[in-house]
Design a protein that fits this description.
Keywords: Cobalt, Metal-binding. This protein is α/β, with parallel strands linked by helices. The chain contains nine helices and five strands. The chain folds into two domains: about 5-80, Methionine synthase domain (Methyltransferase, Methionine Synthase (B12-binding Domains), Chain A, domain 1, Orthogonal Bundle), CATH 1.10.1240; about 90-205, Cobalamin-binding domain (Rossmann fold, 3-Layer(aba) Sandwich), CATH 3.40.50.280. It has helices spanning about 5-10, 15-30, 35-50, 60-80, 100-115, 125-135, 155-165, 180-185, 195-205, and strands spanning about 90-95, 115-120, 140-145, 170-175, 190. Bound molecules: CO-5-methoxybenzimidazolylcobamide. CO-5-methoxybenzimidazolylcobamide (B1M) binds near residues 101, 102, 103, 178 and 199.
Length: about 210
C-alpha cells in the first residue's frame, strides 16, 4: 500500500496517534502536501457515507475528525505561504448550531497563507459574535462563514443578514458542503467558494 493509502486508512479508522508520523513519512518520501490533504478529505467522505449507512456512529466520526486534524497540523507549515503584505483582517467561524470545523480550519489555513490576518471564532458562532469581532478588530475586510448542516443553513442566512445590517459594505463569503452559489446569492452573501483552495481567489476578488 502507498503511504497516502496508509494515511487514508488511518483517518477512516481513526488512528489519531499514528497519523502525524504517517503524514510526515509521506512528506519525507516526496508526496505532495496537497495530495495528502485531498486524500484525507476523501477519507472524511468515506466516513460520512459509512455514517449515513449506519455502519458507524457519532463517536467514530469524531475520532476520524480528530485524526484528520492531527494530520493537517503536520501539513500546515508545509502549506503556509511566504507572505509579507497583509491583505487585511478576515473574521471566520462556523455558524450557530454547527460544530464542524475541519473545512473551516482549512479555509483559515489557506486564507492565512494568502496574506489575510485571520481571526478564527471557532464553531457554533452566534451571528452577533461576527459583528462584535468586526467591531473589535482592526482593518476587517472580510467575514467568512462556514456551515456543514442543512439544518444550520438558516444560521448562515442569519449571520449574513446580521453582519450586513451592522456593516452594509462589509464583504461576506460563505461556504460548506450544503451551500450552493444560488443559496449564497439568495441569502445576500457577496461570494461563495466550494472549497478551501478556491476561497482564496474569491476572497481576493471580493476585497479588490
Ligand atoms: Co457530521 N455530518 N454531524 N460530524 N459530519 C456531516 C456533515 C454529514 C454530511 C454526515 C452524513 O450524514 N453523511 C451530516 C450532515 C447531513 C446534512 O445536514 N445534510 C452530518 C450530521 C448529520 C451530523 C450530526 C447531526 C450527527 C448526529 O449527531 N446525529 C452532528 C451535528 C453536530 C452539530 O454540528 N451540531 C454531527 C457531528 C459531527 C462530529 C462532531 C462527530 C464530526 C465533526 C468534528 C469536527 O469537525 N471537528 C462530524 C464529521 C466529521 C462529519 C463528516 C463525516 C466529515 C466533515 C468533514 O470534516 N469533512 C461529514 C460527512 C462529509 O463531509 N461527507 C459530516 C472534510 C472537510 C474538509 O470538508 O467540511 O465539507 P468540509 O469543508 C470543505 C468544503 O465544504 C469547503 O471547504 C472544505 C474543503 O476544502 N468549505 C468552505 C467549508 N466551509 C467553507 C467556507 C467557505 C468556503 C468553503 O467560505 C467561507
Amino acid at each position: 500500500m502507498s503511504k497516502i493509502e496508509d494515511i487514508k486508512v488511518l483517518v477512516e479508522t481513526g488512528k489519531s496517534k499514528k497519523v502525524a508520523a504517517a503524514v510526515q513519512g509521506a512528506l519525507d518520501a516526496g508526496d505532495k502536501a496537497q495530495d495528502i490533504l485531498e486524500a484525507m478529505i476523501a477519507s472524511m467522505s468515506v466516513v460520512g457515507d459509512k455514517f449515513s449507512a449506519g455502519e458507524i456512529f457519532v463517536p467514530e466520526m469524531l475520532i476520524a475528525a480528530k485524526t484528520m486534524s492531527k494530520g493537517v497540523e503536520v501539513l500546515k507549515p508545509v502549506m503556509a505561504g511566504d507572505v509579507s503584505n497583509s491583505l487585511g483582517t478576515c473574521i471566520m467561524g462556523t455558524v450557530a448550531g454547527d460544530l464542524h470545523d475541519i473545512g473551516k480550519n482549512l479555509v483559515v489555513m489557506m486564507l492565512e497563507s494568502a496574506g489575510f490576518d485571520m481571526v478564527d471564532l471557532g464553531v457554533d458562532v452566534p451571528a452577533e459574535k461576527f459583528v462584535q469581532a468586526v467591531k473589535e478588530n482592526d482593518n476587517v475586510v472580510l467575514v467568512a462563514c462556514s456551515g456543514l448542516l442543512t439544518t444550520t443553513m438558516p444560521a448562515l442566512k442569519d449571520a449574513v443578514k446580521t453582519v450586513k445590517a451592522a456593516f452594509p459594505d462589509m464583504k461576506v463569503i460563505v461556504g460548506g458542503a450544503p451551500v450552493t452559489p444560488e443559496y449564497a446569492d439568495e441569502i445576500g452573501a457577496d461570494g461563495y467558494a466550494p472549497d478551501a483552495g478556491s476561497s482564496v481567489a474569491k476572497a481576493k476578488e471580493l476585497i479588490a
